[in-house]
Amino acid sequence: xxxxxxxxxxxxxxxxxxxxxxxxxxxxxxxxxxxxxxxxxxxxxxxxxxxxxxxxxxxxxxxxxxxxxxxxxxxxxxxxxxxxxxxxxxxxxxxxxxxxxxxxxxxxxxxxxxxxxxxxxxxxxxxxxxxxxxxxxxxxxxxxxxxxxxxxxxxxxxxxxxxxxxxxxxxxxxxxxxxxxxxxxxxxxxxxxxxxxxxxxxxxxxxxxxxxxxxxxxxxxxxxxxxxxxxxxxxxxxxxxxxxxxxxxxxxxxxxxxxxxxxxxxxxxxxxxxxxxxxxx
Length: 281
Prior knowledge:
- The protein folds into two domains: 24-129, Immunoglobulin-like (Sandwich); 135-280, no CATH class.
- The chain has strands at 24-32, 42-43, 47-53, 60-61, 70-71, 74-78, 81-82, 84-88, 92-96, 108-116, 119-120, 124-129, 134-135, 137-138, 141-142, 144-146, 165-166, 178-180, 190-196, 224-227, 230-231, 233-239, 246-251, 258-267, 270-271, 277-280.
- The protein is mainly β.
């Protein structure tokens, strides 16, 4: 099965569940949706991917900015608190863990339950930490978008090698064969990076919602961002324009070049895995 990113990049999933069968959450099947790193804690407010069987009868994707707690006759709870749903399918659900699943500042283990067409799964234990960082990525390339110069060919591109996401991506206008534009970043470029699990905010938002109009919700802890183990300047860390997804604005540090430089985020004593990268020339 194709695993679907928390940013709603929908794809073709497995065939529908058999009618009337109770949903089953796979053992260890609840992971952060940014990088799908197993065996790591997740955090309140984070988007997680729930893997299993009979989770829904068909693929249903939300069509609103505010996420609902029911989608396609499916709901998910964590310790009895309703989660917000991005999409549901027979083998995977992407859901936002409720911000208030645990008291502020508390870590612990909670039980997740999927209810589909009136049938509920057995509870699945999930470790909740204040921090559960992950970097959204596609084929190990970080969702790091260049925001340095609107007049540059690099603007609004992934910081990845040219033609990483299709062919003809160095042409203007972009041909249909180019899915996403990609160009290596340069020293000093500002990158907008999408991440998960960066912890509490200075202006709390509601589960399933974005911050109120005009309100900026920054993280109370500034993460450390490493490009090939070199710290980058963090210009912003807070909520993005996607529900449950954080945004980190960084400046590419000097002295790093390469087509696949490890890109990692550290916060709360937890570091993201080293297999996500960016390109810098």
